[in-house]
TrEMBL record:
Homodimer. Residues 393-514 are annotated as: Regulatory domain. Keywords: Acyltransferase, Amino-acid biosynthesis, Branched-chain amino acid biosynthesis, Cytoplasm, Leucine biosynthesis, Manganese, Metal-binding, Transferase. GO terms for molecular function: 2-isopropylmalate synthase activity. Transmembrane segments: none annotated. Pfam families: HCS_D2, HMGL-like, LeuA_dimer. PROSITE patterns: AIPM_HOMOCIT_SYNTH_1 (PS00815), AIPM_HOMOCIT_SYNTH_2 (PS00816), PYR_CT (PS50991). This is 2-isopropylmalate synthase.
Length: 514
């Protein structure tokens, strides 16, 4: 019988540390429910000590999730661990993940501590976490650049203190697969009490090796992998959950373990995370990219038609790719809408929220004949965007664009209930529209990213626009969706401006990296 490989998803914690990817409490719960449906073993819901907002989000996920273990991150500090323990009180199954840096450069330059002090802090942290749960994970931050002898010392000590999972992070994505795999094997062999804990890995993708390093670790005895949906994460991201899981599932001849995940939920979860964070999935992304199972070459097409296995090593259906299914239309009723939303993991706080979402659905159905699941997800994301700190609202937009003439846009917005109208010219309809909005709100922000993605197929597809604004060191993402791409762009810009003008809800202290 093969070993079980534990999948530890950190989309809600490390994934959220991507610049501009912060999620609201309700959005975290939606993603957590999707992860639970996929049968993810452990969901790292956040860093409770980072902010009150993050504490409440972890608490909400802990209360909502019943089948997966919910985890909170904590530095090796009493206040962090107590905060995590408090946030996780409502969980059916909880874990506290505590960490401290162990590389010479981190201990000397960041912590200003001697190695013996670091071990003392680690042991005390694990013992304190055991007061809240018997499921405690410890990470030696920057293990990839730590001395192996010191790793053996500190890991042996934390196992004795009660740690049940030892996570070895390649925090800066510096390791090579063969080297990283050998490190895992050596630690398991050299630590006398290694059989009392599960070894885990958490790899960053700075050199594009996060998945390769994770799989090398699994080959050498690791039985938990920390990863994120779509490889989301700060800098170049983390190991991609879908790639790790499908590599192991597809190559069962090679790996001596497997996961318990329902891989048919992968694509749905990927699209949900992309929609909420505003980070589109590149078309050639493995497993979840739009072209992942597309065949352009005539030779490839001929081979697939004769036998799928000639060029397909896994079935598209096994990861959730199916022909877009029309779930609802303009004649669908309120109950059918509510039922389908529940199947997608969306629950409404009350009748008012349901009525608002149903009204939006009817408006969309008047513009677009076929309504797919992706449309519904975008509709709910847009509703949540507008629900939080919406000081500015789009009232009307008129654009004039014709050959040989400079495009001009006139926009009317509500700013805290006061109507304002402005006009501007630009290089195109979108440029003119955004300049008209900026002339009224005057944020002075820099447009760092403008991205357009079609939500479904067809010329009547909704366009989903992501806009990233940067101002005084603060970065926010705005999203908007509409069948008219100019209107979607205006919505996305206004969404980003609302975020800029609201108090920052979450902080990402670099000392919180693992």
């Amino acid at each position: 019988m093969k070993d079980q490989l534990i999948i530890f998803d950190t989309t809600l914690r490390d994934g959220e540390q991507s610049p501009g990817a912060s999620m609201t409490r309700d959005e975290k719960v939606r993603i957590a429910r999707a992860l639970e449906r996929m049968k993810v073993d452990v969901i790292e819901a956040g860093f409770p000590a980072a902010s009150q907002g993050d504490f409440e989000a972890v608490q909400a996920v802990a209360d909502a999730i019943k089948d997966s273990t919910v985890c909170g991150l904590a530095r090796a500090l009493d206040k962090d661990i107590d905060r995590a323990g408090e946030a996780l009180k409502g969980a059916n199954s909880s874990r506290i993940h505590t960490f401290i840096a162990t590389s010479p450069i981190h201990m000397a330059k960041k912590l200003n501590m001697q190695p013996d002090q670091v071990i003392e802090y680690a042991v005390r942290a694990v013992k304190r976490a055991r007061q809240y749960t018997d499921n405690v994970e410890f990470s030696p931050e920057d293990a990839g650049r730590s001395e192996e002898d010191f790793l053996c010392r500190i890991l042996e000590a934390v196992i004795d203190a009660g740690a049940t999972t030892l996570n070895i992070p390649d925090t800066v994505g510096y390791s090579m697969p063969q080297q990283f795999g050998a490190t895992i094997a050596n630690l398991i062999q050299r630590i006398p009490n290694s059989d009392k804990a599960i070894f885990s890995v958490h790899c960053h993708n700075d050199l594009g090796l996060a998945v390769a390093n994770s799989l090398a670790a699994v080959m050498n005895g690791a039985r938990q992998v920390e990863c994120t949906i779509n490889g989301l994460g700060e800098r170049a991201g983390n190991a991609s959950l879908e790639e790790v899981v499908m590599a192991i599932r597809t190559r069962q001849d090679f790996f001596q373990c497997d996961t318990r995940l329902d891989t048919r939920e992968i694509v749905t979860c990927s699209k949900l995370v992309s929609s909420i964070t505003g980070f589109p999935v590149q078309p050639n992304k493995a497993i979840v990219g739009a072209n992942a199972f597309a065949h352009e070459s005539g030779i490839h097409q001929d081979g697939v038609l004769k036998n799928r296995e000639t060029y397909e090593i896994m079935r598209a259906e096994d990861v959730g790719w199916t022909t877009n299914r029309m779930v609802l239309g303009k004649h669908s009723g309120r109950n059918a809408f509510k039922t389908r939303m529940a199947e997608l993991g969306v629950e409404f706080a009350g009748e008012a929220d349901l009525n608002d979402a149903f009204y939006r659905f009817k408006q969309l159905a008047d513009k677009k004949h076929e309504i797919f699941d992706e449309d519904l997800q975008a509709l709910i994301s847009e509703q949540s965007f507008e629900a939080e700190d919406e000081h500015i609202k789009l009232v009307a937009l008129k654009v004039c664009s014709e050959t040989g003439e400079v495009p001009n846009a006139t926009v009317t917005i509500l700013v805290d209930g006061k109507e304002m109208t402005g006009s501007a010219s630009g290089g195109g309809a979108v440029d003119a529209s955004l300049k008209a909005i900026e002339s009224l709100v005057q944020t002075g922000a820099t447009l760092a990213l403008y991205s357009v993605n079609n939500i479904t197929t067809g010329t009547d597809s909704q366009g989903e626009v992501t806009i990233r604004l940067e101002n005084a060191g603060r970065i926010v993402n705005g999203s908007g969706a509409d069948t008219d791409i100019v209107i979607a762009s205006a919505k996305a810009y206004i969404n980003a401006v609302n975020k800029l003008q609201s108090p920052e809800q979450r902080q990402h202290p670099q000392k919180g990296d693992v």
